[in-house]
Amino acid sequence: MKKNLIAAILLCGIFTHAQNATADTLKTKSIDEIVVTARKPTIESKADRTVFNVANSAILTGNSTWDVLRMTPLVNIDNNDNVQAEGNAVTVYINDRKSVFTGKELKEYLKTIAADNLMKIEVITTPSAKYETGGAVINIVLKRNENEGMKGSVSLGNSQSFKNSQATSGNLNYHRKGFTQSLNGSFNNTNSVNESFNENLIYADNSLRRVGSESNSTGKAPSLTSATEFELDEKNNLGLVVQYYGSTNSYDAVADGQYFLNSVLQNSYTNHINAHGSNLFAGSNLFYKFYDKEKNRILDVNTGFNYSADDNTRIQTTIWDPAAFEGIKTASENQNREYYIKVDYSQPVDKDGNLLEFGGKMNFRNNIMPFDYFNQLGNSWILDPDRTNTFGYVENLNSLYANFSKTFFKKLETRIGLRYEYINFTVKQDVGGIERTDSYGALLPDLLLKYSFNENYNLTATYKHSLWRPWFTEFNPFLMPMDNGIYQRGNMELEPNPNDRFGLKLGLHKKYFLSVNYNTTNQDYWTSYVVEDGKTIMMPATFYGRVNNYSLYANTNQNFLKNKLNVNFNLGLTYVDNSDFRQRNNFVGLQDYITNFSGSTNFSYTNLFSKNININGWMGLHSQNWGNSMGNKMNFFHSFGATKLFPATQMEAGIRFNNIFRRPGNDFITYSPIGTFRSVNKWDWYGAHLTFVKRFGNQKVKESSKTNVEKENGGGKG
Q1: Residue 702: what pLDDT?
Q2: What pLDDT does residue 79 have?
Q3: 2, 6, 8: which is closest to 618 by C-alpha?
Q4: Whole-prediction pTM value?
Q5: For residue 44, is pLDDT > 90?
Q6: What residues does each domain of the chain span?
Q7: What kind and span of H or E run contains 712?
Q8: Three-state DSSP class for 472?
Q9: Which residues does residue 641 pair with via DSSP β-bridges, in sequence order?
């Protein structure tokens, strides 16, 4: 770490000297014209959100949208690929539309979106009542066309880590008077190798299972997005967004396991796992916008349909010592359908700029997930009717919301919101006729107060009550074997998790920001373990007990060397009081009090040596403690790269190095009443990436936003 820090300091010193030397050679030349170009700062901190402006930044070259999301200030991604902001769970929006993907599915989808399409990433830590979320919101805003005619780009990338991967993407935009058409497509061919080690201790019989494995994954993933918009007149717009994402994948792994009883080796085995499958997502969104610029009235109507399906087969063969073997085969063909309609309306209520927003959404979901389970008998597979099952999930979620914003004394900005949600859902499995039908309503208030002492000092206070609901796959009770010798399944009895969040944010000189937050909840669902018929099973479970979370975050964004060097620093410290949670659930070994640290920095340097060379880098350091899991080390990520621009031909070439000084991974222990479960992983996000980009047409872009009220006061579609 010290060597890396010294190298970074020397590098910055060289860049500074080079720029000063270049400036000295120009002192004797006359200046005929001065052109001042306004640039947004890389990081903007607003009342309810932090904005990461990445348009035309060198940080985009050689990265996917998922990679840039990792580098976004205040964002942390846990070991299960769940995105968090300031320690809170996150709902991801793309161009103000809620993503249907979560967890690993979201990761794979965002990896197909080239970062070159990004305008900015908004981290909304206190979303207004119009957002459909149980925590924070991350809104990924893509570029759109502004100028007449056609423009576009083609990007070719090659990554070398343990194995080689390729990525190709292109976008085409056409704008003519009131008509705009955008097409974005990509194809990723990925090859990755990951290593893991698991150590599972069961208290009841003092048994210990150790498993080490290495997996090879390959995947081919095409994606295509089409966005069409008609400007019918000055006030009316009509548009259609169509998305397609598909993938074919294969997975091979070898896991060697040992089973101990009272520290004495009982037997050992080798697991061979082979899996293959395909995934498909197709979605459409038809929207209508009415915007009266003179009266600042906005009506936005969205309706759409999403369909996803996957077909996966997994075969696991276990060879025991002494010689014996058994085989397990699982097959699934899932189909998920979602329909929705959403209406938003906003308008000023007087001449002082006070704003009223209200709207609602109706959402219907119908998911069918059949699983077949086979046991091996010789060279044949025999269907096991006791474990074969079909899981169904039907949901209707309706919501209404209202926000009112008012400014007092030209110094105190206020926003009060109230959201009401009512859900009716049914989960069932065919075998045994097990079914659960439930419904409940929830009122979700929020409040924002911002007082500006003067243009250099302001203080913002926020409150939000939210509800985090289980994802439908977390209900699925099908028993699935895992590589590490245990099984996993969902839990049909999961309950929603309420949460209250209070925050204070101090802004100084528009460069320094300090946030203090308090989160509290009396129940949550985390990973649990049970032993049934000799099998250790991992599953989510609702745990009761008070958890209090206190956090402190500091952020600053600085420009140096005539705005050529931009540096952003983020520091975060979280203190969690887990004592009641631990004691009520008998988590032996779990600490009563947990401290988490996070820190990150982004830097970018524009036009190095006046040679159209842009460089950038990022480092992040994060603790790995959450719920009933404790990390044994901190995660350290780093990435740096350079881009050479060729303005005459609208081409660019870039090279990026990811985690070359330390391969990323995790090491954590999950505590449960029946034992402890340690997991160690080494990930494949490291190595070098080369990118070549060819652009054509006028590359001017503009943001996909409607009013300054939304951008400054934290509105936005939800």
Answers
A1: 53
A2: 63
A3: 8
A4: 0.84
A5: no
A6: 155-713
A7: helix 708-713
A8: helix
A9: 616, 656
